[in-house]
Amino acid sequence: MFLLNNVLNVTAFQWRNFEQNLKFDVYSPRKSSTSRKVPCSSSLCDLQTECNSAASKSCPYSIEYLSDNTSSNGVLVEDVLYLATESGKSKITQAPITFGCGQVQTGSFLGSAAPNGLLGLGMDSKSVPSLLASQGVAANSFSMCFGEDGHGRINFGDTGSADQLETPLNIYKHNPYYNISIIGAMAGGKTSSTKFSAVVDSGTSFTALSDPMYTEITSAFDKQVKEKRNQADSSLPFEYCYTISAKGALSHPNISLTAKGGSIFPVNDPIITITDISSSPVGYCLAIMKSEGVNLIGENFMSGLKVVFDRERLVLGWKSFNCYSVDHSSKLPVSPNPSAVPPKPASGPGSSNPEAAKRPSPNITQIDVAKPSSGSSVHLHFSRTFFAAISPLLLAIL
């Protein structure tokens, strides 16, 4: 089992400064002694029809994303990924991987989205887990742990444990996403038998649901909240926001989902907190966005869990977990990055098709919130970890 440590912890105050001073950790194939361009003749090249007749011509790639006008184009490159074993005596393992080296970006990539790239973890043959499994480096499974402290871990080759809860993955040939079936939900003491399928997307910061499940869950949550609901700010993608009383006590209904097979998926972090300029909490929002025709279980719903993407048994597993309970390595300092933008997939069945999603995009990271009433400015305080997209292609966005 191999560990990749990635740390991202950004507040709204840090984020404003980061946007104004955006810096890129540029990967240059010319500066890497182990890099080589993937030729058009390679079996990994999907766009061979766009190559010329020269066998040495670099293979191009092109991918579009859900956010309006957002795309990435460039050439495929092969280089070496260095991984550290977690169990026993730690050692470094080298694994060649293929990824897209971006040359022309549009939309969100010109602003703040994924300035240092996207880590492709999908079921496509070009994703990192697929390449590692095909080379015999790791089992065809991996886990992601989303810590409540804003840190995260990914373990390639992790097949889970006997005490985890599970649900089967819905496999669609033309839709390489981690799709599961939800057969019920609970908000506080109110249950719902709403059934829907959803993409489990670690590359989306916040959960996005379409009707009727969106209205059923949010309405049940709202009816049980004791705090006063306030008018949602236009800059926020959330409909249900509340003012915290002067006592500062924060109490909200718990949310959980029931997956196919009966396993309960606990939602440990369904809200985001709004703070004033002194970082004192003044409100919170239910961090679920309304979408059209697509359901995405985002990273905020996976907080406090280790989620196992078992591609051999075709199941999704999860359990409550302390991300660093067995980790003795130091945390890697990583520059602030927003969450990635999911790519447009081929058409899929019903609500499992993320391409049906319209604005607002389910990929929001940091938002400045307008002042509700007092004299001090108020900001959304948000801290998230992984920017890995459930994507069929690993992109190095330059």
UniProtKB/TrEMBL annotation:
<comment type="similarity">
    <text>Belongs to the peptidase A1 family.</text>
</comment>
<dbReference type="InterPro" id="IPR001461">
    <property type="entry name" value="Aspartic_peptidase_A1"/>
</dbReference>
<feature type="region of interest" description="Disordered">
    <location>
        <begin position="332"/>
        <end position="368"/>
    </location>
</feature>
<dbReference type="InterPro" id="IPR033121">
    <property type="entry name" value="PEPTIDASE_A1"/>
</dbReference>
<dbReference type="GO" id="GO:0004190">
    <property type="term" value="F:aspartic-type endopeptidase activity"/>
</dbReference>
<dbReference type="InterPro" id="IPR001969">
    <property type="entry name" value="Aspartic_peptidase_AS"/>
</dbReference>
<dbReference type="Pfam" id="PF14543">
    <property type="entry name" value="TAXi_N"/>
</dbReference>
<dbReference type="InterPro" id="IPR032861">
    <property type="entry name" value="TAXi_N"/>
</dbReference>
<protein>
    <recommendedName>
        <fullName>Peptidase A1 domain-containing protein</fullName>
    </recommendedName>
</protein>
<dbReference type="Pfam" id="PF14541">
    <property type="entry name" value="TAXi_C"/>
</dbReference>
<dbReference type="GO" id="GO:0006508">
    <property type="term" value="P:proteolysis"/>
</dbReference>
<dbReference type="InterPro" id="IPR032799">
    <property type="entry name" value="TAXi_C"/>
</dbReference>
<dbReference type="InterPro" id="IPR021109">
    <property type="entry name" value="Peptidase_aspartic_dom_sf"/>
</dbReference>
<feature type="compositionally biased region" description="Pro residues">
    <location>
        <begin position="335"/>
        <end position="346"/>
    </location>
</feature>
<feature type="domain" description="Peptidase A1">
    <location>
        <begin position="1"/>
        <end position="319"/>
    </location>
</feature>
